[in-house]
Structure formats: structure tokens, C-alpha cells
Amino acid sequence: MTAASPSCIFCQIARSSTTTTLLHTDEKVVAFRDINPSAFRHYLVIPVEHIGTVKDLQKRAQDYSLVSHMLNVGQTLLTRDAPTSIQYRFGFHQPPFNSVNHLHLHCMALPYIPKWKRVKYSSLGPLGGFIEAQNLLERLKP
């Protein structure tokens, strides 16, 4: 973890320095709508503290707890806002495929809109791509 970066848009959102509407806020995370949604509902959950990417997380209780909390917040929001969705996806882009260098969980109630956007949320095996939140939790479990 590092100090908040003044140039990081997600740090600014986490500190309420923007006009972004927050769907959830607590001492660890904030959640808001994705500016360029890829699904029927598409939210981002980010830590208040600046963590660059999933590559900065370690196999320890603190990181496992944070990702677990992020997932719980995302699941709660989507079951509230899209209760009839048949499928949900929760995960992270891994470098070099992440768009913002501030850890963020994609929380999506499908279908993808448009359908081709599902490609952005595919695993690329050893090359990275998208990692499901549950798979990341398994990797971080102390």
C-alpha cells in the first residue's frame, strides 16, 4: 500500500474529491458506477487506500480480508440493484490489462452490453487478463 496519489482518479473518488456518486462507503472501500459500463449493471469497488494492482497483493490475512470485503460489498449492491439478473461476475483485470493503476473490483450483473464486451473479461492464462474474485481469494488465502 502506498499513500494516496493526487493524480490517481480513484484516490480522488475514494476521498470524495469528485462529483462521482458513491453507492457505498465505509472505512475500507467505496463503490460507484463504472463510467463505461460493460453490463446491465456495472459497479466498481475500490479500496480507500491506494493499492496499485492485484500484483501488489500478498498471501496474508490483511489482503485476503480486503478482497473478501470488496466482494461482499459488490455482491450486496448487485443483489439489491439487479435482483433478477441470472448471472453476476466479480473480478479484476491484471497488468498489463488494467486501465487504472488503483485496485478495483468489477461487479457486473449480466448480460454484457454490447455482447462483444465479454471479451474484455476473459482470462488469458499465464498472460493475465481477468481474474475472478474467488480465484484471487484462493491465491491470497493465508
From TrEMBL:
Keywords: Hydrolase, Nucleotide-binding
PROSITE patterns: HIT_2
Boundaries of every HIT domain copy: 9-121
Intervals of motif Histidine triad motif: 102-106
SUPFAM superfamilies: HIT-like
Any one GO MF annotation of this record: adenylylsulfatase activity
PANTHER family, sorted: ADENOSINE 5'-MONOPHOSPHORAMIDASE HINT3, APRATAXIN-RELATED
Protein's recorded name: HIT domain-containing protein
Organism placement in taxonomy: Eukaryota, Viridiplantae, Streptophyta, Embryophyta, Tracheophyta
